[in-house]
Predict the 3D structure of the following.
Amino acid sequence: MFLKALKIIALVFTSFIVLAALYLWTPDKSKAELEKIYSSPKNAYANALGVKIHYQDTGPSKNPIPILFLHGFGASLQTWDAWSEYLRNDYRVISIDLPGFGLTGEDPSGIYTDQRSVEVIEAFLKELKILKVVLVGNSMGGKFAWQFAARYPDQVVKLVLISPDGYASPGIKYGKKIEIPAIAQLYRYFFSKTFLEMNLEPAYANPKTLNNALVNRYYDLMLAPGVRGAILARMQQTVLQDPVPSLANIKVPTLLIWGEKDAFIPIANSDDYLKVMPNAKRVSLPNIGHLPQEEQPSIGLAALKEFL
């Protein structure tokens, strides 16, 4: 009798786990449906080293030196919409979904190292026959921007770094992979909008900035085909190198834009850049967090315009 009761309990428990998994399971969204929402006539695709890069190209096409925007980790080209809308009156403005994010989706090579990403950006510019750019990057995109400027100095006329990544955080060592918990693999199959919102909130000094439309956009594009697997692969493959030698070799005029209430990469980190970059200056933004282009676009844009 006891054994029979135990079997019934086990069956009920197993059924509960299966039903919970089915309820929480989060499949990828259709790319065609996402394109209907997050694409426009100004958007297109370009092949760069086998990666089908999704990008937006606006403003005067004959402008010989466009602005190229690079978004941060987990974001997409839409993070620049407010700035692009304004700047396109006077500048050619290009924003891209970096490999592994947005409608670009996964890199068929499966390689997500920093070096690979920088090489893909360079190949993208070649595909569009662009010789020089003003390069603007936020967070992870800022890291790619300064790495690009160090590697291809003749292709960058001005550099704008918005809370850039690159220096190791406490507990992380240069030259070593970051340990990713095995449980993180479940992220491929189960992904809650509530969980995403909790992780996005610290990016903004004013929590009211994170409205439903913004959360929905991040969530939808996180569910673009292959993106979650690509994000996990990038986390597993990223190995930080001491940035000082590369930063010290960047000679182009550089603007650091930093929110004073950045909870992701504190503004104190900007001092590390200013110490080693010979032509860098900083603009600090009061009461703004990690994403000034989303939180208070006009304030960060004013600093960018003056620099341009």
